[in-house]
Amino acid sequence: MNKSHKIWLAIIGILFIALGIICFCRPTGTLFASAWLIGIFTLASGILTLVFTLRTQLFLPNSGTRMLSALLQIFLGILFLANPVTLTLSLPLIFAFWVMIEGIILAINSFDYKRVGYPYWWSFLIFGILATALGIAGLRNPADAGKWLSTLIGLGLVMIGCAHFGALTGIKHFEKALDNAGRTVDIQ
Fold this sequence. Notes:
The chain is mainly alpha-helical.
């Protein structure tokens, strides 16, 4: 993978973690600001995921789930940026759904990391299960989810940010597996 893609993956991971921490520290301003900030970060993450998926779809069997994740992130990013005020009212339900879907996709993709020998593949599985559980909890009672949305958003963003760093370290295992398969690894 191109060095610049790895740098962007790290930057997006840092931004997700930083935004998650801000959500914990500033819960009162979280809803409106989150709609705008999450829109930017989600759009950037979706574009990066889409580029990665398009470049690796021939080598990875679950590229369809990554493509779904990328398109969902791009759609939500645009939605958050286009109408943050109205979206703030429905943010608990939308965000809970997004965290649940991302958790499911992360859990499924963890087995790709296991297949290529990444020793911490199980951390993706755990993050995926936790994110799915948080999403389901938010969907079960969206009115109450609004009360603890700041915590939900913070936890979800920190987990997604950590998953970006895990993906960054796991890329080496994918590149090694591709080298062993006799394919070129120069993904730019």
